[in-house]
Amino acid sequence: MSRTPVDPTTTPAWQALTAHHEAMTPDLREWFAADPQRAQRFTRTVGDLHVDLSKNLISDETLGLLLELAEQVGLAERIEAMLSGEHINVTEDRAVLHTALRRPAGATPPLVVDGQDVDTDVQGVLDKVYAFAEQVRSGAWTGVTGKPVATVVNIGIGGSDLGPVMAYEALKPFVQEGLEVRFVSNIDPTDIAETVADLDPATTLFIVASKTFTTLETLTNARLARAWLWRRLAEAGAIEDTDEARAEAVAKHFVAVSTALDKVAAFGIDPSNAFGFWDWVGGRYSMDSAIGTSLAIAIGPDAFGQLLAGFHAVDEHLRHVPFARNVPVLMGLLNVWYVNFWGAHTHAVLPYDQHLHRFPAYLQQLTMESNGKSVRWDGSPATTQTGEVFWGEPGTNGQHAFYQLIHQGTRMIPADFIAMAHPAHPLVDVDAPGRPDVHELFLSNFFAQTKALAFGKTADEVRAEGTAAAIVPARVFSGNRPTTSIMAPALTPSVLGQLVALYEHITFVQGIVWGIDSFDQWGVELGKKLALEIAPAVAGDRDALTAQDPSTRGLIDFYLTHRRASPDADD
Ligand code: F6P
């Protein structure tokens, strides 16, 4: 593997793309009119996902040049390097093997990395997670009073929260009746306080999920949860006020997921109630590792297995399908096209599926923690713009909030629209004229939005509606606003796995073009360290306060004045 990233801006393809962009006058109306096959020619399939790229600002030449760029930056070699376990996470000297988490049992040839049989390790943990999930689901796992678990509370943050919560919300119809999973992530005490307030400790199981088991938020919340458990069980007369009784309560009501099993034991959780994973799984790439234990309990091993199979199908696609038909490669290259040649700063992801309401939040960590970098993997400065801002909300809510800017703002915002053919709840509006199927109304909005963004509305069309001349400009839609439409038959566990893997690999492709290490996250460290340094000042230490800069000191002063002035407010 080459240690020096190719500078994409020096490649012939980059020069050609620059000239191509300068010469391009996008006209999707004209392009579609001139080429009746355009939709078909630019539609691709990956697994169950139907991906229509035709409303992007592309021609055959554009795709050809982007594919040349992929070749000239060595994308194929880098994909192979990742999948085979090379240490492509250079700054942490680690392999990047989230794809190994979803290899089917018995896959051949076996994956051996750094002398370790990865397949056997993965299967061993998965079996343990599945056995535990079955115990909880069947009621065989009981709390200290002998009652089965009704509520699982996952305590974790970042990748130890966003993936499981997103998937739990997405797969609600697959959750076993009588089981609920809640998620606590924020160190804002409101989060844990309100999440457990109405829970019965006797039927609550906490999963402390932390790759490092050092994360301030998670360990603080885990301690708060433990204190809550002990207090509430004691109040109910369920445990004695002894160390032994408290230890037994932890053993029955706490399990952990981590790569640091020694730290799990130090917290008081029996290592036999801990599920491991490995440093080659990045936090934001970990929802299909043991970090997904809460999800595996909720939807069960069969559905979790289907989720993994969905991921794997897209991994195979990435590895084997020629780039011209390779969806993650094409979508990653399109993102590069918009960021580097069209100057796009952001990218919207707009799921027309209420169950995917946390998908944009999940993608924010995946994409921005991965590609928000200014240096390349060899430490040299990035040679072009890197990670764009990913954001979004489910449709149609977004339509009534920010779509105005996507339709008529001065900035280009490429957008991915995602929808399922089958609704989770096939409701008919029986009291409305024509008794419309509500999912059809919903999807009509999806189709309408991508159409409006692509084809717009001309001044002539606006005038033809009898609009007063002075108002015409405000009612014109420029069109030529790029979108990708992704559809699948239904939001099954497999389809969810496919969607997530698709975006994982899109992110990877972009990182390779830019020559960055998409798997480290040094940018989150400074703030964490400063928070610990500032904490004494916030707690009232005058010397620590004096050591702060004037702005920070002023803010802490404001806090101290108001918090200390009304101590009763805390009661
Ligand atoms: O602070 C960022 C981060 O390191 C993420 O990359 C990670 O997903 C999150 O914190 C949580 O880390 P952990 O799982 O080790 O608690």
UniProtKB/TrEMBL annotation:
<dbReference type="InterPro" id="IPR018189">
    <property type="entry name" value="Phosphoglucose_isomerase_CS"/>
</dbReference>
<dbReference type="Pfam" id="PF00342">
    <property type="entry name" value="PGI"/>
</dbReference>
<feature type="active site">
    <location>
        <position position="528"/>
    </location>
</feature>
<dbReference type="InterPro" id="IPR035476">
    <property type="entry name" value="SIS_PGI_1"/>
</dbReference>
<comment type="similarity">
    <text>Belongs to the GPI family.</text>
</comment>
<dbReference type="InterPro" id="IPR046348">
    <property type="entry name" value="SIS_dom_sf"/>
</dbReference>
<comment type="pathway">
    <text>Carbohydrate biosynthesis; gluconeogenesis.</text>
</comment>
<protein>
    <recommendedName>
        <fullName>Glucose-6-phosphate isomerase</fullName>
        <ecNumber>5.3.1.9</ecNumber>
    </recommendedName>
</protein>
<keyword id="KW-0413">Isomerase</keyword>
<dbReference type="InterPro" id="IPR023096">
    <property type="entry name" value="G6P_Isomerase_C"/>
</dbReference>
<dbReference type="InterPro" id="IPR001672">
    <property type="entry name" value="G6P_Isomerase"/>
</dbReference>
<comment type="function">
    <text>Catalyzes the reversible isomerization of glucose-6-phosphate to fructose-6-phosphate.</text>
</comment>
<keyword id="KW-0963">Cytoplasm</keyword>
<keyword id="KW-0324">Glycolysis</keyword>
<feature type="active site">
    <location>
        <position position="400"/>
    </location>
</feature>
<dbReference type="GO" id="GO:0004347">
    <property type="term" value="F:glucose-6-phosphate isomerase activity"/>
</dbReference>
<dbReference type="InterPro" id="IPR035482">
    <property type="entry name" value="SIS_PGI_2"/>
</dbReference>
<keyword id="KW-0312">Gluconeogenesis</keyword>
<feature type="active site" description="Proton donor">
    <location>
        <position position="369"/>
    </location>
</feature>
<comment type="pathway">
    <text>Carbohydrate degradation; glycolysis; D-glyceraldehyde 3-phosphate and glycerone phosphate from D-glucose: step 2/4.</text>
</comment>
